[in-house]
Amino acid sequence: MSVSSPTKKQKKQNAADQALLDARAAQYSVEVPESQLLLCGVIASFLPTYVAYAYFDVSWTSILNFPLFIIVSALTAYMLQKAYGVMFSTEFLKRQRHYGETKTDADAKLLRALRGQVALSYTLFLVNALFVGLCSVLQLYILRQLESRTSYVISPLSAAAVLWFVALKNEGARERKRVRN
Question: Which has more pLDDT, 22 or 71?
């Protein structure tokens, strides 16, 4: 029993099939702008720092408080970056269609770029609005009876962690919906 090698026609057909498969797989890949999202997370993490400094009079020049401000801001920015990334990819893939909506590749690239802008704008608005609201309520109302540094540590970290968790749940719901359809 001999194994015959594929003919040139079969090799060409396999290469064409592979190219089509790669093109379809690339259509559902999302390039998340990690460094830009981290910058947005750093900017958003300054709100609870400012509230702790201005409202609760926690001095950032103190030798004990300065590392606390740096560590809490960095952890908050990291968790917000992860929440932004998951939510961005979820929102982008929600808007992606499994059929071609355009006739040319240039129009398809433009449509993909516009969908990316819409998904990024929606993600930044939603996550930042929820972070500001949740962190403000926690820091200014619910946890104001605690010591000011404790309130500062708990509020932004728990708000960012909740948003990251919500983003992961949103991605899971999108996956379950995609599998059902």
Answer: 71
3-state secondary structure of 72: helix
Tokens coding 144: 């104001």
**At residue 54, what is the residue type?**
A
Q: Residue 176 has what DSSP assignment?
A: H
pLDDT digit string, tens, across residues 114-170: 888 999 999 999 999 999 999 999 999 998 899 989 999 999 999 999 999 999 999
Per-residue tokens: 85: 């990334």
- With H, G, I as helix, E, B as strand and everything else as coil, classify residue 45: coil
Q: Distance of alpha carbon 25 from its chain centroid, rounded?
A: 21
**Closest Cα partner for 138 from 163, 155, 160, 153?**
155
Please tell me the pTM assigned to this model: 0.80
Centroid of chain to Cα 15: 35
Distance CA 129, CA 123 (A): 10
Mean predicted lDDT score pLDDT of the chain = 85
One-letter-per-residue 3-state SS of 140-162: HHHCCCCCHHHHHHHHHHHHHHH
Question: Nearest to residue 127, comparing CAs of 49, 30, 37?
Answer: 37
CA-CA distance, 176 to 181, in Å (whole number)?
A: 9
